[in-house]
Amino acid sequence: MEELRVVLLGKTGTGKSSLGNTLLGRQAFAPARGVLSGTDTCQWAEATVDGVTLSVTDTPGLCDTHRSADEAFLEIGKSIALACPGIHVVIIALRGDHRFTKEEYDAVKTLQALFGERVRRHLMIVFTGGDGLADDINGMQGYLKEQLSTAPKNLKEVLRDANNRYCIVSNAGTFETRRQHAKVVLSMIQDVVRRNTGEYFTNEMVDECNRKVQEIIARRQRVHGLSDNQAVTGYVFSFLVPDD
């Protein structure tokens, strides 16, 4: 059976965790409810969807005021290990009915710097909140396309980084009604995998990410005066990915 491994990234409140639930067809992740809620650590779940084993890793929200950027990026780095032996697709969740902010743009660019330029080959954007924009999925896609024609420059840049692979979905309603939306995203995931001929993040990519994580750890030691164990514990993960 084909296995697809996906990592979800996005700001808390974008419907990132709910998107994971939509894709899996069940309540696997707890959606954010309030300022201090949301995913604090990487979480993993899988399900068989349309004959495919879909593995989804949910990550801490970006731009959270109660968590430093370093902490968020270090935890996100661990998502590579949870998606062993490698990530097929990285999904960035954005709200389709909210303004794209500079902090979101900066976070996306920092993630690209963390994972390296090759992450673009595995990147796609999923806008959420489509139910507030149109009544059906086709209407949502049409509305989004129209709105993106006049989107701000920084959002268009992020879309280009993802090779203009994007769609919009609704996480509202029952899992049965959300199934149609899950199919749209799953089809796009499979298209990314085909275009990459099944390639996922390799050990080389993981090593590069781990090197950058080590730089963050060193900075945490300098700035916060942490011991080696305090700074490093839980954040060295490349050894979890087996050699080919």
Automatic annotation (TrEMBL):
Residue ranges annotated for the AIG1-type G domain, each copy included: 1-210
Keywords: GTP-binding, Nucleotide-binding
Record InterPro entries: G_AIG1, GIMA/IAN/Toc, P-loop_NTPase
Protein name as it appears in the record: AIG1-type G domain-containing protein
Protein origin, superkingdom: Eukaryota
Record-linked PROSITE patterns: G_AIG1 (PS51720)
Gene3D superfamilies per UniProt: P-loop containing nucleotide triphosphate hydrolases
Keyword Nuclease assigned: no
GO MF entries: GTP binding
Family: Belongs to the TRAFAC class TrmE-Era-EngA-EngB-Septin-like GTPase superfamily. AIG1/Toc34/Toc159-like paraseptin GTPase family. IAN subfamily.
